[in-house]
Amino acid sequence: MEFLIKYTFSATIWQYEGPNGWYFVSLPQDISKEIRDNLKWQEEGWGRLKASAQIGTYEWKTAVWFDTKQNTYLLPIKADVRTKCKLEKGQVTEVSVFV
């Protein structure tokens, strides 16, 4: 799959309070709306949409997940990404997402 559209934004890293405590950034609602309006047909189960992401010079293949409660896509920030990019919960970081 080739990713053609790049979205860049700043977001705060937050941690899900449920089991496993995943870390995420929430995409801005206007960006999420544009992506969903144009690419919802590509979503897989549970609103999963394949994507690539970049923080600093580190880029990785991932997916964004649509959260109906927040009405936005969530980008998971795995431990290896947090370690390589020196990221912590509550930190604001610039993120690029490619869909």
Describe the protein.
Helices cover 17% and strands 43% of the residues. It has helices spanning 29-39, 79-84; strands at residues 6-12, 14-15, 23-26, 48-55, 58-67, 72-76, 92-98. The chain has one domain (6-98): Beta Barrel (Elongation Factor Tu (Ef-tu), domain 3), CATH 2.40.30.100. It starts with 5 loop residues before the first strand and ends with a strand. The protein has a seven-stranded antiparallel β-sheet. The model has no long low-confidence stretch (mean pLDDT 93). It is an alpha+beta fold and 99 residues long.
Rg to the nearest angstrom? 13 Å
Q: What is the architecture at the second tier of CATH?
A: Beta Barrel
What is the CATH topology assignment?
A: Elongation Factor Tu (Ef-tu), domain 3
CATH class: Mainly Beta
What distance lies between the first and last C-alpha atoms, to the nearest angstrom? Answer: 9 Å
What characteristics describe this protein?
seven-stranded antiparallel β-sheet; alpha+beta; 2 helices; 43% strand
